[in-house]
Prior knowledge:
The chain is α/β, with parallel strands linked by helices. It contains 10 helices and 6 strands.
Amino acid sequence: MRVTIAEDSVLLREGLTRLLAEAGHEVAAAVGDAEGLLRAVAADMPDAVVADVRMPPTFTDEGLRAALVVRDRWPQVGVLVLSQWVEERYATELISGRPHGVGYLLKDRVADVTEFLGALERVAAGGSALDPEVVAQLLARSRHPLGDLTPREREVLALMAEGRSNSAIAEALVVGGGAVEKHINNIFTKLGLAPADRDHRRVLAVLRYLGTG
């Protein structure tokens, strides 16, 4: 996997570069600002980008804005955004419109190398990866009625929103794969997502769960 990194902190940028290289991935470019990210992606298309939300010159949302441009201009490139804190508006904006191949993680997650690399690989493959803290806060503010879901179905949907596969959900909940499939089918039914839906029902379920669909 070829990855472009956009992080203004030299220490974190170098750390991410080394981490990815040691995991067998190629760092196509490592830049310190949003404009550099867009130039790097345009010049040498990576499989995914890792971008900090807050970057120079104002350290507000330059990184997020650049990530949105990458998502829309080069939809084949996975986009994983890193943030120091949970910023619900940014997470919602990132997954709205085209929720495929995007992720939003707190920087603390990078310390868990396996979790971070797994999230990046899911995003590069066209999946999604949302930090559990982001999911929890978005759920707390969600206005979509989920009252018909059982507590276990809510747990399954929360793990789906994190981007986990059926097998990973089964492992996390210590249940069999068949049980997970049954819960997911129940979720689809209760949310009114018919098999004939052209869009991916898993993505639609997550968007409804987060109150953006």
